Amino acid sequence: MQEKDFITVALPKGKLFGLSAELLKKVGWSAEGLHEKSRKLIIANEEARLKFIITKTADVPTYVEYGAADIGIIGKDVILESGKDVYELLDLGFGKCHLMMAVPKDKKRPRLEDYNFTRVATKFPRIAESFFSSRGMQMEYIKLNGSIELGPLIGLSESIVDIVETGTTLRENNLEEIVTIMDATARLIANRVSYKLKFDRINSLVENLQQNRPGF
Ligand code: PRP
To answer: Against a cut of 0.70, is the pTM above it?
Structure first.
C-alpha cells in the first residue's frame, strides 16, 4: 500500500482531543492506541488506511497547511490566529467557547477606550490586534503561552485577551469580562491539495460528520 492511499489526521492535545477522537470513532475513523497520552507519535490503522498524529493545539494548522497532515480538527480561534492557508470544511459544533477581553474586577475602567495604550497579555495577539485596531485602539501585546490570567494579577499587563469556556478561571481569579471578541467552535480543516487528491474519502467523511456532529 502506498503512502498516498493513507489519510493523515492531525488532532490537538488538550480539551478538543477527547471529543474529536470520539466523533471520528462514531463515523468509523479510529485506530487502536489512539489516546491523548500516547507516547507513539504516529498511530496508524493500516486496514482503514488512516494515520493519526497528536500535536500541540497551535501546531495543527501548520501540519495541515504544509500537507504533512491531510486534515485536522482545531478551534476556529486557533485557525484565525495561525493565519495559515487551510480549507475549512465543517463546523463540528463542539468545543464552544468565546474569545474575550477581561480585567481585574477592582481595576475596571468605565469604557473600553479607557484601556487605549495599555498592555494586554494573550495567546492570540493577531486576533487581538485586529480587534483593537478596528476600534482605533493601540495596545501593547504581550504574548504568553498559557495561564494568561496571571498577567494582570501580578502586574505584567492591565488586561487579558483569552478563551472562556465555563467562566471558572475568570471567577477564580477575580477577573471580569468587559468585551466579547469572537465565538468559536471546533472545525474540520483540510490541506487544499489533499482535498482535491483525496476528495472521495474526505468528502464522505464530511457527509458522515455532518450527520453525527453534536448540536446541529
Ligand atoms: C483555557 C483558557 C483559560 C481557560 C478557560 O486554558 O486559556 O485559561 O481554558 O476555561 P474556563 O472558562 O472553563 O475556566 P487551558 O486550560 O487551555 O490552558 P492554558 O491556560 O495553559 O492555556
So the answer is: yes
Residue 213 sits at the vertex; the CA angle it makes with 38 and 89, to the nearest 5 degrees, is 85
Nearest-angstrom CA–CA distance, 185 and 203:
20
Output the pLDDT for position 1: 60
Instruction: Determine which helix (DSSP H) or strand (DSSP E) holds 180, and give its type and residue range.
Output: strand 175-184
166 lines ligand 1 (CB under 6 A): yes
What is residue 38's predicted lDDT score, i.e. its pLDDT?
Answer: 87
Task: State whether 64 and 33 are in the same domain.
Answer: yes
User: What is the domain count for the chain?
Assistant: 2
Phi, psi of 114 (to 5 degrees): -70, -10
For residues 48 and 127, what is the distance between their CA atoms, to the nearest angstrom? 38
Q: Quick one: 179 and 189 in the same domain?
A: no
Closest CA to 91 of 76, 71, 78: 76
67 CA to centre of ligand 1 in angstroms = 29
Q: Find the largest Cα–Cα distance for the chain.
A: 64
- Nearest to 144, CA basis, from 130, 136, 154: 154
| Ligand 1 neighbour 121 (Cβ under 6 A) | no
Series of mean pLDDT values for 10-residue runs along the chain (216 residues): 84 96 97 92 96 97 98 98 98 97 98 98 98 98 96 97 97 98 98 98 97 87
Q: Are strands 159-164 and 50-55 parallel, antiparallel or unpaired?
A: unpaired
Check residue 2 and give its pLDDT. 65
